[in-house]
TrEMBL record:
It comes from Solanum pinnatisectum. Transmembrane segments: none annotated. Residues 50-299 form the Glycosyl transferase CAP10 domain. This is Glycosyl transferase CAP10 domain-containing protein. The lineage of its organism: Eukaryota, Viridiplantae, Streptophyta, Embryophyta, Tracheophyta. Pfam families: Glyco_transf_90 (PF05686). InterPro entries: CAP10, O-Glucosyltr/Glycosyltrsf_90.
Length: 381
């Protein structure tokens, strides 16, 4: 089953006696594989000798690969256990924290531990009530149809949908030293829009950490933490099929219900600062890999083409921003604390109840939107 995932894997990771070995199959996009492996090494430094022997395949791309429908047919093979950064209800990929937690060197996004502190300070500098009373989004719209569609919601002479949308030219930013892309300086609006890119987007955590109300355009994909977010508690759900009117209503609602809106922004920020701190990211990785290792029915051995990895071997030859981010995110030594206790899994009834609660909140917003537009028929597009 493990080897069946090789054709879709960028690398194979084997851990034997607490040491990590990697066999690379193909080059991943930018430095995704480098920082993913770096993150795993930091987890091993944090919990030396505690991670069991294991053997896994990892895909560093955006698209989900292990589609459920192919493995539900009669006589279908068992699905390969393939690790990656996001999942969907139609796939069976195993979701793992993405590379950006340790830094995204190519676009100068700092490791999460550093950046989350900077975002917290930025929030304290500019109170919610003093921020621009509009919805803000900045990014590359050309990677997805849903983003291109959202460009129609930008302010124009004919219409103001309460959205302020900016295209990000990463090539220009790179040439100019990323002066206009500091995420900590982008918490100046009361509302921030999250919209998926090619699949999920790593921008979600930076948007949620802003203290602004996150207007979350209905996503298709999830990462390892996002299913813990609840509509009307951590974010405001936006209708993917009617984005502009949905965004306008959300902003008008928030500006007339400022106390409730601020509570949503604050709850999301607290979730990111408390539940998504690096201590828990490492604990999630530890438990995920430990539970996975229990399923192996063979003793992992080092592949003949694999090389051993250690933090020093990776960091010493690194240069520039990559080296800087590695130094910034390096775990100094073993943790005094043991990994947090893994919670009991939800029962099917609990999962159903959770999904029903989510759906009710989304339907509630849709009902408010309908009432709002019935009252404002003359303003409809």
């Amino acid at each position: 089953m493990v080897m069946a995932g090789k054709s879709n894997a960028d690398f194979r990771l084997v851990i034997v006696d607490g040491r990590a070995y990697v066999e690379t199959y193909r080059e991943s996009f930018q430095s995704r594989d480098t920082f993913t492996l770096w993150g795993i090494l930091q987890m091993l430094r944090r919990y030396p000798g505690k991670v069991p022997d294991l053997d896994l395949m990892f895909n560093c791309g955006d698209n989900t690969v292990t589609e459920t429908k192919f493995y539900r047919r009669p006589n279908a093979p068992a699905p390969p256990p393939l690790f990656r950064y996001c999942g969907s209800d139609a796939s069976l990929d195993i979701v793992f924290p993405d590379w950006s937690f340790w830094g995204w060197a190519e676009i100068n996004i700092k490791p999460w531990e550093t950046l989350s502190k900077e975002l917290k300070k930025a929030n304290e500098k500019l109170k919610w009530s003093k921020r621009e009373p509009y919805a803000y989004w900045k990014g590359n719209p050309y990677v997805a149809r849903t983003r291109m569609d959202m460009l129609k919601c930008n302010v124009s002479e004919k219409q103001d949908w309460n959205a302020r949308i900016y295209k990000q030219d990463w090539i220009k930013e790179q040439k100019e030293g990323f002066k206009q892309s500091n995420l900590a300086s982008q918490c100046k609006h009361r509302y921030k829009i999250y919209v998926e890119g090619h699949t999920w987007s790593v921008s979600e955590k930076y948007i949620l950490a802003c203290d602004s109300v996150t207007l979350l355009i209905k996503p298709y994909y999830y990462d390892f933490y996002s299913r813990g977010l609840m509509p009307l508690i951590h974010y405001w759900p936006v209708n993917n099929n009617d984005k502009c009117r949905s965004i306008k209503h959300a902003v008008d609602w928030g500006n007339t219900h400022q106390k409730e809106a601020q509570e949503i922004g604050k709850a999301a920020n607290n979730f990111l600062q408390e539940q998504l701190k690096m201590d828990y990211v490492y604990d999630y990785m530890f438990h995920l890999l430990s539970e996975y290792a229990k399923l192996l029915k063979y003793k992992p051995t080092v592949p003949k083409n694999a090389i051993e990895l250690c933090s020093e071997v990776m960091a010493c030859p690194a240069e520039g921003v990559i080296k800087k981010f590695m130094a910034e995110s390096m775990v100094k030594g073993p943790s005094d604390a043991i990994p947090c206790n893994i919670p009991h899994p939800l029962s099917p009834a609990d999962v159903h109840s959770l999904l029903v609660t989510k759906e009710k909140s989304i339907k509630q917003v849709e009902s408010w939107e309908k009432q709002y537009w019935n009252k404002n028929k003359t303003k409809q597009h």
